[in-house]
Amino acid sequence: MSTFSGLNTALSALQYNRVAMDVASSNIANVGTDGYTRRTIQGASVGTPDQPAMWSRYTGAGDGVRVSSIDRMSDALLDVRARREHGNQSYLDIRQSVLERVESGIGEPGDTGVAAAIADFRSAWHDLANNPGSDAARSAVLGKAATLANAIQIQARNIATEAGDQRVRINADVAEVNTVAGDLAATNKSIAVANLNGTDAGTLLDKRDQLAMRLSELTGGTATGRADGGFDFAVNGVPLVTGNTAGTLNVAAGIDGSGNSDGNPISFSITDSSGTTAVPAGMLGEIGGVTDLLNTTLPAYTQGLDAIAQQLADEINTQHQAGFDKNGNPGQPLFSYTPGSAASTIAVALSSPADLAASGIPGGGLDASNATALAGATGVEDSYQRLINGFGTTVASVTRLAANQQVLTDQVDGSREQLSGVNLDEETVSMLAAQHAYEAASRVMTTLDSVLDTLINRTGVTH
């Protein structure tokens, strides 16, 4: 073994510990970088030569150390779990936020909701029954009827507006999915090139993980690792990203080109080089949550409100037409509406207070038996209460599920952060350890230099 080999051993230690300090420094520098995964250096001992020279024996004790790899501190299973939980969380969060907003717009219980308007409408009929000859009481009935119709219309309009906003959101989310999918495909290509060239792909892998997480949050899809280091991504089993090629997610039905509903349930498809494939129903993520709201939850409430408006109009109109107005004429329908959209079109059909059929007999004068019957109509109140209670139960259930899911999501994120996040105390210790090892290797090199100086300059010197 050459006397000079000790210098190479010390040099290898200097190089290794310099890289170790660089890794720790990079971790500290990225402590606040979103999506950064902590790196750690792996060393390998440089052993004896595999094939020593002919007629010689290796008498050394090893040739130092080398950097075998710089690894990202990540767990593939934890990453898969995190993407799945974030997809579920996004699905529940969007449903919770929209339903809570709709519930606030309903305003029940409250002084401005439909229930209060129904009660005021009934009270106005009671006042008219007590004073059938009063024009003021008749005007009050028409005013309360208009208020009730307006309250129902406002609810219907709020829900329609929310549905329109959510259709805009779906179009925006689909556009984002296609952008992120294209970025993931490009990142996959860059990772493959980096691996072939033998360069560090750590930053690209961080970006890959971030893109896959965002796609999971939007669609609830799944990412599958590739041999070249990239990710394939599928939405409900339909490939969206394969290697360096990205497909296009499309809204297949439910939303027309202008962003309005086309009358069909919302569905999706993915188009790639092989053609267009329908995405099965049941997506999760933000898009799945909005889709369920637009296909099921909001239409169900709208249909219930339409039924309430129609029931109200039919009950009141039937009873009103059984009476007679101030002039002795048979009563006319008090409310009008368009079948199929009663809640958004219900309106007061009468304009004159004298047209109110308070009397139960022709030419009844001050008879108010029909007004008393109209004041006692209560069927619609019970139906409306059931509708509100059912919707409130749905909102409470979604809120509870979202809170429970948040606990699980936070737990998984905490486990990932514990493994992948940068801990300044740990990095400081690593840097100090590498610094002292570097200083020790420098001292070894200084000692060897002194030994060689003695060997070269003093051995064999005579006086």
TrEMBL record:
PANTHER family: FLAGELLAR HOOK-ASSOCIATED PROTEIN 1 (PTHR30033:SF1)
One Pfam family named in its UniProt record: Flg_bb_rod
Domain Flagellar hook-associated protein FlgK helical: 99-335
GO terms under cellular component: bacterial-type flagellum hook; extracellular region
Coiled-coil segments: none
Protein name in the entry: Flagellar hook-associated protein 1
Residue span, Flagellar basal body rod protein N-terminal domain: 7-37
The keyword ATP-binding appears for this protein: no
Cellular compartment(s): Bacterial flagellum; Secreted
Origin organism lineage: Bacteria, Bacillati, Actinomycetota, Actinomycetes, Propionibacteriales
Molecular function via GO: structural molecule activity
Family: Belongs to the flagella basal body rod proteins family.
GO biological process, one term: bacterial-type flagellum assembly
Keywords noted in UniProt: Bacterial flagellum, Cell projection, Cilium, Flagellum, Secreted
Domain Flagellar basal-body/hook protein C-terminal: 420-457
Gene transcribed to yield this protein: flgK
NCBIfam families per the UniProt record, alphabetical: flgK_ends
Species for this entry: Nocardioides marmorisolisilvae
SUPFAM superfamilies documented for this protein: Phase 1 flagellin
